Amino acid sequence: MSADAKGTLFDLCGGHPALDLVNSLDNRFRADGPDEMLVSYGDLLRFLEESGLLSRQHVRALSRTVAPEAAAQALHCAHELREATAAVLYGILDRKDPRQQDISVLEQHFLDAARHRELRWGAEKSGNARPAQSAFSGEAGFAWAWGRYEKEPNLPVWTLAESVSDILLSPDMARVRTCAADTCRWLFLDTSKNHTRRWCNMKVCGNRMKARRFQARHEQT
């Protein structure tokens, strides 16, 4: 996690919000334990804002209205969704079938999100939903919207569940990769021309590994 000149808190180099969500537990495979980026409900809201999943106005509204107990429960659900997603994706990358336990957790979150959507005509984009183009107007169309649920504490979790469902059920799954740096292993979507991307962030992990190789060669001479 690093702040930049624009004041962003999260390094969203995964290319998809679901992958960035998994990456929000940094140093996941480190021997002395990982670093949690989503420590509070406020962190969760900021993650969704920086990911473009919720507007700044919506984030501010939730920050003001959600009670501490509800916020803590929503954060717990977000962690649960993230870890089930991580288990499934890393398992697949390691050529292992996903565990039914993790699939069941994801299914529960996907169904919970679906139960809190409303079908709207002419609705603006909500979460990952996109209005279907109308043959009558060329502009308006049907879309899923949060409607009366948009002020609920669990809205960030439902929005993230939609994002996870989006990638797991799409052809993009075939392009999910893990950073080649053993100390990192962040997930990213490989959109490179030849599908040869190796690093989550070339300026960080790529340069670090280049420096290590240079040092190793220097020590051998």
Task: Give a short summary of the structure.
By secondary structure, the protein is mostly helical. It has helices spanning about 15-25, 40-50, 55-65, 70-95, 100-115, 155-170, 200-220, and strands at about 25, 35, 120, 140-145, 175-180, 185-190.
List keywords for this structure.
single chain; 221 residues; mainly alpha; two-stranded antiparallel ribbon; 7 helices; 6 strands; 46% helix; 8% strand; globular; disordered N terminus; disordered C terminus
Plain-language structure description:
There is one protein chain. The chain has helices at 17-23, 41-50, 56-65, 68-93, 100-115, 155-168, 202-220; strands at residues 25-26, 35-36, 118-121, 142-145, 176-178, 187-189. The longest helix is centred in the middle third of the chain and has 26 residues, at 68-93. The strands form three sheets. A two-stranded antiparallel ribbon has the order 1-2. The chain has a two-stranded antiparallel sheet with strand order 3-4. Strands 5-6 form a two-stranded antiparallel ribbon. Helices cover 46% and strands 8% of the residues. It starts with 16 loop residues before the first helix and ends with a helix. It contains seven helices and six strands, in the order αββααααββαββα. The chain is mainly alpha-helical and 221 residues long. Residues 1-5 and 210-219 have low confidence and may be disordered.
Count of distinct strands: 6
Number of helices: 7
Low-confidence stretches: 1-5, 210-219
Order of strands, main sheet, comes to 1-2
Shape: globular
How many angstroms separate the termini? 36 Å
Rg (C-alpha, Å): 19 Å
